[in-house]
Amino acid sequence: MNPRLNRRDFLKLAGALPLGYATSQAARSLGLPNLMQQDGRKNVLVLVFDAWSAYNISLHGYQRETMPNLARLAERAVVYHNHFSGSNFTSSGTASLLTGTLPWTHRALRGGDDVAQDFVSRSIFSAFKDYYRITYTHNGWANTLLEQFQADIDELVPWKSLFLRSYDGFIHSLFKNDDDSASVAWTRNMNVKQDGYSYSLFLSHLYGELQKNRYADLKQTFPRGIPSTGDVGSEFLLESAIDWTGSRLPRIPQPFVGYFHFLPPHGPYNAPMDYIGHFENDNLRPLDKPQDLFTARVPYSALLKRRAEYDEFILYVDREFGRLFDQLESAGLLQNTVIALTTDHGEMNERGISGHSTNALYQPVIRVPLLIFDPDQPTRVDVHTPTSAVDLLPTLLHLTGQPIPDWTEGVILPPYAEPTPGRSVYAVKASKNGQFDPLAHASVALVKDNHKLIYYFGYQERGVDELVQLYDIQADPEEMTDLSTSQKNVSTQMLDELKTKLEEVNKPYIK
Ligand SMILES: [Zn+2]
Questions:
Q1: What are 46's strand-pairing partners?
Q2: Could you report how far apart the first and last alpha carbons of the chain are, in Å?
Q3: What is this structure's pTM?
Q4: Which DSSP category does 160 fall into?
Q5: What is the pLDDT of residues 123-155, one digit of tens each?
Q6: Which of 100, 123, 167, 192 is deepest in the core (most CB within 10 A)?
Q7: CA 251 to centroid of ligand 1, rounded, Å
Q8: Domain ranges for the chain
Q9: What is the CA(486)–ligand 1 centre distance, in A?
Q10: Are 245 and 324 in contact (CB under 8 A)?
């Protein structure tokens, strides 16, 4: 520690810190007054774990005990068993959560897309307009969407700020008990060239060495690799993001609406040491399902291994979700906060396909968890009717006594409103379609009661102009028997409905 540093230096430097830091830890360290207010309205917290399939969750009937903490906490929640994401990948699925509309409406159709201009001011953040709005994601594509909504966000935590190579991710964990001085050191290290704090050359070497050692330790904890987005320099610890969230939320003004979108269990499935091999000897032999039109020809044995690695990574998510829940409960926040726990889409390890970069819309990639924890509904309720990601926004507004905007395509979820009999729930994947062109190259699933129709169209590259599949997802949840021929009536009726819907959503884009 440099002896020339004093509190005035620190104040000066605090002004030069990145926004996310300056508004949070700096304020706390300096003992600024707590801005918290409470006017009796409940806070809303949406927690998203990316690429998290209901198929692999013990609570939803999976044979492996992947989520013991979730099973325990579900006793206090509304649990949705037939809940569907808006799509099967991040941009489309996240935009559906944030706007309460389907991909063919918000138009974030391709990886990294923004939403259509009309929706920049139509999101969960604009809908909760007099709330304190805070958000964070590890996921770059989700972050692109958050940045688009930033005019309606009070605190957009920079996405890389919770990565290991940033202050919050690395220096903070190294110097837990010496937050102030470490932050100054970091600022100097970062500003060596710009601001003339060049006497920290020694520090930058020290930092380099410490970082090397810390990475070596972490590599032992995470033998398959430190969790990351897959890009160089993108390593992060879910623990740090959870701790940051758990310590930040009790300190912000209330009522707040928070959207936190963590990357695990999204691949790479880098589980910590404690969980590696956890399911090794359980002899689970999943169905060897037929190869699909969109198969990537991943062999059964490799899929089995991938599935075990994914399940291990879910154990890690379960542990960290449990910790966050406990932290928020200890802070007293659960008495006046509604928590929605969900994901942007699922994941699959079957039919020669591993992951979710696929055009297929089988249950594992679109049937996803949703649990709502509401202090006014403290006992478990199970909902089995089909529900959609687009229903979350209107439901959260309803639960906080606010008007529901006319642009959302969702409805208030049961048990807060009567379920609509025979409601149509859609999921849409059109990542090869032009963003503002009529849908001509896409996959659409339509779920109605116990039936699910999947319509693939425009896949000339696979030699397919149109393909229709029909499953009874109640009697045949593994989707082994295509009923499109044997139940021709159902299939024709659902396909007609779907095509009528497509005409309607395409209309604004026909030139
Ligand atoms: Zn995702």
A1: 259, 340
A2: 65
A3: 0.87
A4: G
A5: 999 999 999 999 999 999 999 999 999 999 999
A6: 100
A7: 28
A8: 1-33+165-225, 34-164+226-509
A9: 35
A10: yes
Residue 166 pLDDT: 74
3-state secondary structure 16-64: CCCHHHHHHHHHHHCCCCCCCCCCCCCEEEEEEECCCCHHHCHHHCCCC
**What is the 508 CA–ligand 1 centroid distance (Å)?**
28
Q: How remote is the CA of residue 228 from the centroid of ligand 1, in Å? A: 13
* pLDDT for 213: 83
Q: Which residue has the tokens 């590696």?
A: 276
**Secondary structure class of 375 (helix, strand, coil):** coil
Please tell me the CATH code under which domain 34-164+226-509 is placed: 3.40.720.10
Between the CA of 94 and the centroid of ligand 1 the distance, in Å, is 7
Distance between Cα 101 and ligand 1 center (Å): 17
Contact (CB, 8 A) for 54 and 346:
yes
CA of 347 to the centre of ligand 1 (A): 9
Dist. CA 241–CA 37, nearest whole Å: 25
Q: How would residue 180 be classed by pLDDT, with cut points 50, 70 and 90?
A: low
d(CA 128, CA 133): 8
169 alpha carbon – ligand 1 mean position (Å) = 22
E runs forming strands in 336-488: 337-342, 348-350, 353-355, 370-373, 381-383, 387-388, 425-429, 442-448, 451-459, 464-472
User: How far does the centroid of ligand 1 lie from the alpha carbon of residue 68, in Å?
Assistant: 23
Q: Which residues have C-beta under 5 Å from ligand 1, the single-atom ion?
A: 50-51, 90, 344
pLDDT value for 242: 98
63 φ, ψ to 5°?
-70, -25
DSSP SS3 for 288: coil
How far is 15 from 8, CA to CA, in rounded Å? 11
Gap between the Cα atoms of 425 and 27, Å rounded: 45
